[in-house]
Amino acid sequence: MSDIAVAKILDLKGLPCPMPVVKMSQEIGSVQVGEVIEVHTTDPGSLSDFPAWASTAGQEVLTSEQNNGVIKIFVKRLV
Amino acid sequence: MDETRKQELIKTLSSRLNQAMRMYLDNCTRCGTCIEACHAYASEPDIKYSPVGRAQNIRRLYEKYFKGAGKLAPWLSEAIEFDDAVMKKVYDTAYTCTGCRRCVTYCPFGIDTQQIQSLAKQLLIVADMEPKVLSMLADMSIAKGKNIDKTKGSFATAVSNLETEVLERWRSEAGAKAVPLDVQDANVLYIALAGKHSIIPAASIMNAAKEKWSLSYFEAVNFGAFVGNPQKTKEIADRIIQEATRLNVKEVVICECGTAYRVMKYMTGEHPFKVISFIELIARYLQEGRIKLDKAKLQGRKVTYHDPCQLARNGGVYEEPRYILSHLTDDFVEMTPTREDNWCCGGGGGLVAMGEKDFRMKSAKVKVDQFTATGAQVLSTACENCHTQLSDLSEHYKTGVKVEYLSDLVSKALVQE
Ligand code: SF4
Ligand code: SF4
Predict the structure, then answer these.
(1) Rounded to whole angstroms, how far apart are CA atoms B226 and B183?
(2) Do B147 and A52 touch (CB under 8 A)?
(3) Interfacial A residues in 14-73 facing B (CB < 8 Å)
(4) Taking phi first (over 0 means left), then psi (-120 to 50 degrees means alpha), and beta for anything else, what does residue B257 get?
(5) Can you point out the beta strands (E) in B278-352?
């Protein structure tokens, strides 16, 4: 378990393409700069999609973890 | 709009004026044959959403800058100039066109409205007015290509975690990887989408067929094509081409994503490998007796099939899904109209990613009437975008029809001997 303080949890499990990244890009503005969103997904592709999105959007993926088929990705709002 | 932007737009318009495009723009007789062919007009009659109506602004801009009458005596023609108001109208008609090309099959002059809309989208990109969500997704795909080595490890862990769910559908031999990655000289490089629902059924089917296959690190969908940016379309496709070339695979097999199939098959040039859709691969396995299906799984439910526009009308894959369905059920019913005449689901061209739920639901009413008229309980299809739109329609109009991926139905009906 990560001990990162999170401001919001976003459940994106089972969504069709490309909704996980679309929802993430919409939700990042709902937390303050410096705060972290914890994303829950079941998409293997999101492990490369989210860092790629973050690099183009000026945000940061801090880390990710995988447990019982659920992928958790921690995204920090930088801008 | 400043003069520099105007000149850029004129230059872009000029760059797209090859013989075919000039023919499309010059030869429309306004006969109106195409009008009712568009699902958007057929569902909610508004001339601006008819094929000829959608092309009107581009035609008038072309007349203004490239035709004698528009240049010399604009008051005699319908010519208009590039300005913000005109570009707003172009946006409304371009990004509500799903690119289904149903209208093309109706035009007696072979005018390709989808090509005119692709030009319109390119102009909107130059005007910095394209839907930013589509550009964001295209940029993400390009960045993923550049940084893939950093995330290969976690992706590999995620796909190995899918093993139990793959084995529930097909028990592979002990020691065999349920979802193989990086297989040199594989027969098949399978290009999935991000979600596990596009990996698990395919993996179980290919394992059942004892295929030598490899899962791609990249997603099939090409948002460069959705947004209408040729350069980004190419960069996104190149990631897959390079991976396929590195692994020396015989075939690149595109998952149930219509646009991905059309882009890879027809818009990326010649390759040392073949490009086919996953539906064609399943049909081949059945034909060669490499997999067998149990019809009992769908017993008691009538099944119909929606031809995804980019796979069927724009990709020629009509027989294979029907052949697969003949192995899945004895209770199959065609929609009316069907095949090349099938109505678009109304969610293509990036509309699903853009949201646009209200427009999507209203403009595809004709699709709902079409599939509910079959009396089928199961609506199968072979495209993620169509699946999302059809599911939204079914829920919105409370039809009770269950939308299913063809690959999912196949993988659940596999007979393990
Ligand atoms: S391509 Fe499809 S959505 Fe676009 S105008 Fe033609 S029929 Fe309508
Ligand atoms: S059918 Fe062809 S010629 Fe007739 S209005 Fe439509 S685009 Fe123009």
Answers:
(1) 30
(2) yes
(3) 14-22, 25, 42-49, 51-53, 55-57, 64, 66, 69, 71
(4) beta
(5) 303-306
Q: Is B398 in the pocket of ligand 2 (CB under 6 A)?
A: no
Which phi and psi (to 5°) does residue A73 adopt? -125, 130
Identify which ligand lies nearest to the alpha carbon of B103: 1
Q: How far apart are CA B208 and CA B192, in angstroms?
A: 18
Q: How far apart, in whole angstroms, are the C-alpha atoms of residue A16 and residue B353?
A: 10
- Residues B133-287, CATH architecture: 3-Layer(aba) Sandwich (3.40)
Hey, what are B136's tokens? 């964001």
H-type alpha helices, B67-107? 68-72, 84-94
Report which protein residue has its CA nearest ligand 1's atom 3. B97
A17 as an active site residue: the answer is: yes
Q: Which CATH superfamily is domain A8-76 in?
A: TusA-like domain (3.30.110.40)
Distance B293 CA to ligand 2 centre (A): 45
Interface test with B, best of A13, A15, A17 (most B CBs within 10 A): A17
Q: Please write the tens of the pLDDT for every residue from B301-348.
A: 999 999 999 999 999 999 999 999 999 999 999 999 999 999 999 999
**Which chain A residues are closer than 8 Å to B408 by Cβ?**
none
**pTM (2 d.p.):** 0.95
pLDDT tens digits, one per residue of A2-16: 789 999 999 999 998
| Structure tokens belonging to residue A68 | 């019982």
Work out the pLDDT band at B73, boundaries 50, 70, 90.
low
Long-range contacts of B240-244 (CB under 8 A, 24+ apart): B240/B189, B240/B191, B240/B216, B240/B264, B241/B268, B241/B271, B243/B189, B243/B216, B243/B217, B243/B218, B244/B189, B244/B271, B244/B273
Ranges of each domain in chain B: 3-130, 133-287, 295-412
Give the DSSP H/E element, type plus range, for residue A41: strand A36-41
- Report the alpha-carbon distance of residue B62 to residue B202 in Å, rounded: 47
CATH number listed for the domain at residues B295-412: 3.40.50
Let me know if the fold of B3-130 is the same as that of B133-287. Answer: no
Q: Which ligand is nearest to the CA of B46?
A: 1
- The CATH number for B3-130, chosen from 2.60.40, 2.40.50, 1.10.1060, 3.40.50, is 1.10.1060
CA distances from B18 to B52, B56, B68, B115, B187 (A): 20, 19, 18, 12, 39
